[in-house]
TrEMBL record:
A Pfam family hit: PPR
Keywords: Repeat
Keyword DNA-binding in record: no
One annotated GO biological process: RNA modification
Protein's organism: Solanum lycopersicum (Tomato)
Protein name listed in UniProt: Pentatricopeptide repeat-containing protein
InterPro entries: PPR_At4g14850-like_plant, PPR_rpt, TPR-like_helical_dom_sf
PPR repeats: 28-62
Length: 119
């Protein structure tokens, strides 16, 4: 499933990506990551945020890849409130942020005009 999502997303075929994802009986962190990243990469940031909500409702825990992509979606939408909520979510669950997530987080705050927070 994840390979098919990746294949169709590279061609920009979001419809096929969504059909493959919806047809999966079991959705792992990897498949959620693949579809969220796919939506962010083709400029469908609003959809990626809805997918994150759906993911959290299924009790699948977002990993650093999902978080990085969601910060990218929030950046493109200048959605400071949503980005801050994700930042707090990461801190609350006690996850260690790797360099990639830290860089994406700084980028998010900078793009949203929150220079002091980014610093």
């Amino acid at each position: 499933g994840t390979s098919l999502i990746d294949f169709y997303s590279k061609g920009g075929d979001v419809g096929s990506v969504r059909r493959v994802f919806d047809d999966l009986l079991v959705k792992s962190t990897a498949t959620w990551t693949a579809i969220i990243a796919s939506c962010v990469n083709v400029g469908k940031s609003e959809i990626s945020l809805q997918l994150l909500r759906n993911m959290l409702e299924t009790d699948v825990v977002p990993d650093n890849y999902v978080v990085s992509n969601i910060f990218g979606a929030c950046s493109s939408l200048k959605y400071i409130k949503g980005g801050k909520e994700i930042h707090c979510y990461v801190l609350r669950r006690g996850a260690k942020m790797n360099v990639t997530v830290s860089n994406v987080l700084i980028d998010f705050y900078m793009k949203c005009g929150e220079v002091k927070t980014a610093r």
